[in-house]
């Protein structure tokens, strides 16, 4: 089964604190928040992940790459412009290869 994670958010309320990082990459105890989420998914054998990314997406891609370091497979659905929740999900539709999504 595949899992979709919406990680393209601007994080405007946190801009003063995380100016140079996308919100999902905020460090908690030395690790990005998104890493904890990915590890939690792996714990439940959800290892095929599509990250919907937008704002500062290169930082997320650089850190997670293909997901191999965490024992998961990561693909990226990249927004050029903010599409909102529904738009991000619709854009990621081409990555879905399973009936359960």
The mean pLDDT is 87
Ends apart, CA distance between termini: 7 Å
Low-confidence stretches: none
Please state roughly what percent of the residues sit in beta strands, choosing from under 5%, 5-15%, 15-25%, 25-35%, 35-45% or over 45%. Answer: 15-25%
Named at the architecture level, the CATH assignment is Alpha-Beta Complex
Number of extended strands: 5
Q: Could you give a short account of the major beta sheet?
A: 3 strands, parallel
Q: State the share of residues found in helices, binned by percent.
A: 25-40%
What is the CA-atom radius of gyration, in angstroms?
13 Å
Listing every helix as H and every strand as E from the N terminus to the C terminus, the arrangement reads EEEHEHEH
Strand order in space, largest sheet: 1-4-5
CATH topology title: Spore Coat Polysaccharide Biosynthesis Protein SpsA, Chain A
List the helices and strands and how they pair.
Layout: E1 2-6, E2 27-28, E3 31-32, H1 33-43, E4 48-53, H2 57-64, E5 73-78, H3 84-92
Parallel strand pairs: 1-4, 4-5
Antiparallel strand pairs: 2-3
Give me some keywords for this one:
101 residues, alpha/beta, Spore Coat Polysaccharide Biosynthesis Protein SpsA, Chain A, two-stranded antiparallel ribbon, globular
What does this structure look like?
With 101 residues, the chain is an alpha/beta fold. The protein has a single domain (2-95), classed as Alpha-Beta Complex (Spore Coat Polysaccharide Biosynthesis Protein SpsA, Chain A). The chain has helices spanning 33-43, 57-64, 84-92; strands at 2-6, 27-28, 31-32, 48-53, 73-78. It has a three-stranded parallel sheet, sandwiched between helices. It has a two-stranded antiparallel ribbon with strand order 2-3. The radius of gyration is 13 Å and the shape is globular. The termini are close together. The model has no long low-confidence stretch (mean pLDDT 87).
